[in-house]
Amino acid sequence: MWLLFLAVAVAAAVISCVRVCRAASVPLPGDAASHPPGPREPDGATLYETAFLAGGPDRVADVTLVSMARQRRLLLAHTGWATVVDPVGRDAVECAVLAAIGPGGQHRIPAVREGLARTATLRSLADGLVATGLTPSATGRSGVDAAIRQVRAATLLILLAAAAAVWSGPQGLGTGLLLAWFALPLVLTTGTWAMARVEARPSVRWATTAGEHLLRRAAARVTPDGGGHRAEGHDPLTALALHGPRTLADPTLRAALHSSGA
Question: For residue 108, what are the β-bridge partners?
Fold first, then answer.
C-alpha cells in the first residue's frame, strides 16, 4: 500500500514541477534576447508607468495618494484612511483614485488600491505597457501564479502521502527508510517552490526583461540616504515608485500606507 502513496507523491511532484518550468519558459513580450529594451528610455517613462513596473497597481495607487497628499488635496491618516480635500483630479489616474475613494470622500487605503486596480484607467495603463513589451500580460502572470500554487499543493500532498504511508506501511520496513523515499519528491517540490518564489518577486511579476532594464536605469538616479532613498534631481515620488513606502521621510505617510485601515 505504501508504494501506492509513493507513486502518488512522485506523480504530483513531477507534474507540478514540470508545469512551473513550462510556465516560466513561455516567452513574454520583451524577454526575447533579440528584442530591444523597448521604445521608451527611462526618462520617457511616466511616473505611473515606473510605479506599475516596480509594484503593480498597488504601487500606482500609493504614488498617486502620496502625490495628492503632498499637494494637500488628500489627507492620509496613520490609521490607513484617505480623506478627500480637493475632489478634482488633475489626470486620469487621480480621477480614478477619487472615484475609488467614493462620494463619501473617505475610504480605507487598501480598499482604494483594490478599487483603482479594477478601473479602466489602470487597465489602459497596463495594456500600454504590455504593448511595448515592458510588462507581461495578465495571462502570463496568472499562468505562473497558478503553477506556483500547484507546486505548493503538491508539497502538502507529499507530506500527507508520507504520513499515510507510515501509518499503513509494513512492519518490517523501517520508518526512516520509508520516509527517505518520500524525501526525494519533497526536495524536488520544495526546491522548485523556493526558486519560483524568488523568480516571482514583484519586480519580475510586473516587469519583463525590458521593463527591468528600464527600472534599473531609473533606479540609478536614486541614491540611498540614511534609512531611505532620495531622488537626485527628481521628485522623491520617483523613489516611492521604485522602492515603495519605506522611502518616505514622513512617518505618518509610511504608517498610512502600511496600515490595514481597519
Answer: 81
